[in-house]
Amino acid sequence: MTRQPRLPPESFRELLQKNIGQQIYLNADDRHPCRLLEVQTDYIVLTSRGQANQPHQTYTVPISSIVSLQDVEGLG
């Protein structure tokens, strides 16, 4: 399987902006869905469901760490 080319950061941010509130999978190997809460210049804010009896977890991910669109499933 070949990786998709990396989008310019501005284009990728625009695509992420359009998907705020959507459920996404940040990594194809990690089947835990996250909800995209916020898109900033250099990072995104996600929330994920906690495991049994644990609260939701909110965390930030640097946009630069997302190598390609293949690393994010669920973007529309």
What does this structure look like?
The protein is of the alpha+beta class and 76 residues long. The chain has a domain at 23-67. The protein is 12% helix and 26% strand. The protein is built from one helix and four strands, in the order H-E-E-E-E. It has one helix at 9-17; strands at residues 23-24, 34-39, 43-48, 57-62. It has a four-stranded antiparallel sheet. It is elongated, with a radius of gyration of 12 Å. The chain starts with 8 loop residues before the first helix and ends in a 14-residue tail after the last strand. The model has no long low-confidence stretch (mean pLDDT 76).
Q: What secondary-structure arrangement, pairings included, does this model have?
A:
Elements: H1 9-17, E1 23-24, E2 34-39, E3 43-48, E4 57-62
Short note summarizing the structure:
With 76 residues, the chain is α+β, with helices and mostly antiparallel strands. It contains one helix and four strands, in the order H-E-E-E-E. It has a domain at 23-67.
User: Which term fits the overall shape?
Assistant: elongated
Q: Provide the succession of SSEs.
A: HEEEE
Number of helices: 1
Strand count: 4
- Strand order, largest beta sheet: 1-2-3-4
Low-confidence stretches: none
What is the rounded Rg? 12 Å
Which terms summarize this structure?
single chain; 76 residues; 1 helix; 12% helix; 26% strand; elongated
